[in-house]
Amino acid sequence: MWRFLYRAFLRACGIKLDFRQNPRTKIGVCPYPRRSPFFLMLINFQQLARYFNSPRPTKNQLLGTKKLKNSKIGKTALVLGGGPSLSRLNLDRVKSDNPDIWVVNGFALSDAAKVLAPKYYVLSDIFYFNREYLLEPIIKSLDVQAFTLVLPHWITKNFPKHDILNFQHLFFDDRELSAWSGNTSPLKPRGYLSLTLYKSLALAVFMGYEKIYILGADNTEFLGYTSDISNRFLFGGFYDYEDPVGQLDVSSDFLDGPAGAFIDVAHALADLYKFKGPIVNLDSKSLTTAFPKVENHPWILT
After folding, report:
1. Pick from 125, 145, 120, 141: nearest CA to 212
2. What whole-number distance in Å separates Cα of residue 204 and Cα of residue 214?
3. This prediction's pTM
4. Contact in structure between 183 and 190 (CB atoms under 8 Å)
5. How far is CA 280 from CA 9, 42, 79, 296, in A?
6. CB 251 within 8 Å of CB 28
7. 46-56 CB burial, b ≥16 within 10 A, e <16
8. Taking all residues of the chain, what is their mean pLDDT, rounded to a whole number?
9. What's phi and psi for 177, nearest 5 deg?
10. Under a CB-based contact definition with an 8 Å cutoff, are residues 110 and 141 in contact?
11. What single-letter DSSP state applies at residue 284?
């Protein structure tokens, strides 16, 4: 019954077929190139529906995170993404200066991981919890380094007995309301798109660091988009390290395929302007223009 009503709704809206003229299985995100107020409203209410259907974090889950608010006043953080600019990091100088280092996702596969010891390791992509080969290098790092894992609140519902929960960890509220809110506090639903680096930045701002430097926030992941002979829309990652996930078919992830994907990129770039704090971008050529940039910083190789 619900399937029939869903198909009838898609047919009535004129979106029963995707950009490859195949039957649509889900609406996806980003209403381009239609540009109509109706489709924009549809996408935004779809996000609201997901929010109400998502599990809420418990008070106990967020208690440890709440205690860390403004706990880093007077200290310096270095937040590292996985972009190609990560290769320009002066590892020896950073190690000597010893800032609090925040890393995400596949950092354990990078050359920097052989030298630097992170303070916080943030994971939020479900792939890292249901694919052992992705988590294995992170677990190996945990065996020799005492960093804190920062995890989405939903892991206790989706993976209640996951081995990673045996390590020291914090939680953040990973519900999304990016179309409805400008919030960046990890204690409330996100007002920005679901990028793990952004969640790291939100936590660093929340903890009140005197200075927050970022690198690897290139926002050039779109260079990993490709297509094939069947017009499938594929994403293979564009990182400092080899992406172990490989190519993913994201044809149905956006309302209008590649066109919607690049609108999503625009939204991601715009969301960075929601982050307020002493943030400095170490990559002078980054497409991230929301924060001041510096040149000739000792942490960057010349």
Report:
1. 120
2. 11
3. 0.90
4. yes
5. 47, 36, 10, 13
6. no
7. beeeebeebee
8. 91
9. -140, 45
10. no
11. T
Q: Which helix (H) or strand (E) holds 21?
A: none
**What integer is the mean pLDDT of 264-288?**
92
Q: C-alpha 115: how far from its chain's center?
A: 24
The torsion angle over the Cα atoms of residues 145, 151, 157 and 162, rounded to 10 degrees, is -20
For residue 237, give both structure tokens.
Answer: 């990652």
Q: At 143, is the secondary structure helix, strand, or coil?
A: coil
Strands of 100-104's sheet in order across? 169-172, 148-152, 120-122, 100-104, 76-80, 211-215, 279-281
CA distance 289 to 190: 21
Contact 29, 263 (CB under 8 A): no
- Give Cβ neighbours of residue 152 (< 8 Å, ≥ 6 apart): 123, 124, 171, 172, 174
Dump pLDDT digits (tens) for 223-237. 889 999 999 999 987
The residue assigned the tokens 């929340």 is 206
> Does the N-terminal peptide bond of residue 189 adopt cis geometry, omega within 30 degrees of 0?
no
Token pair, residue 68, equals: 């860390």
Place of tokens 């390290």: 241
Over its C-alpha atoms, the chain yields an Rg (Å, rounded) of 20
Fill in the DSSP letter of residue 277: S
| Structure tokens that stand for 97 in this block | 């200066």
Measured distance CA(189)–CA(149) in Å, rounded: 19
Is residue 264 predicted with pLDDT exceeding 80? yes
DSSP secondary structure letters along 164-212 = GGGS-EEEE---B-TTT-----TTS-BSS---HHHHHHHHHHHHT-SEE
> What is the token pair recorded at 1?
């019954």
From CA 78, how far away is CA 61, in angstroms rounded?
25
Question: Could you identify the residue written with the tokens 């209640």?
Answer: 160
